[in-house]
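This part of the workshop introduces the protein records we will be handling. The structure tokens are whole numbers drawn from a learned vocabulary of backbone shapes. The record below serves as our worked example for the rest of this section.

===
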Amino acid sequence: MASPFIVTFPRSSSSAYPMAVRVARQSPGYAETQVGRQLVHAATFGTTAEALMVLTELWRLVRGWKGARLEVDGVPVLPDERARVGEVLECAVRAATFPEPGPFCTSAPTPSWSRWRGRPAFPCRFVAILNAVAVEAIEWDHPARRVIQVRALLAERGIRHCPFLALGPFEAALATWRPPRLAPPSAGTAGIRRDLGVKDLKGPGDPPAPAIPDTVDELIREWPPEEGPR
């Protein structure tokens, strides 16, 4: 099986160039080629924790260089994904330290303020924890749209480059899941807060409401009360 990751970079005047070459040479598939007058280094990596750690370090060193390139399963990383994919690789290193990466990837807890109790475990811990509001905003009660929205969210966060993403089992479980019946959405700030599971205080003696992400209040500020969420 071919290594899924290939990093190539040319000779550089950067002070980090000697370090990048030393790191690249840790790859069992390291090679040097001459392209015209330019020396080009190439390093291939698998999906063990050790290989991914070296890959992550190398990509951190060279990703900003002109001519540096990372391919994942033969597909080059897009320019605007270069920084984001580094974070994905760091998460993959953590997953690779588990005997089976799958349980790590699906281990993000459902937020206490979620409306979607019983939903199959989201397939990416990285996205579920950092983008909890975006995950909750998926139309989970719309079978024809939820799968597309999940895939779009993962693509936007660069998760297509993760070697451990397993959408098949998640989508199979999702096909048989039925969301709980929900009350019709309410317009205005009060309705938004109710639909997101945010409880307003009724009096000075009431206990504080459960902590929620700051982004929830940011969403509320963005939605005019007369319009409600779209």
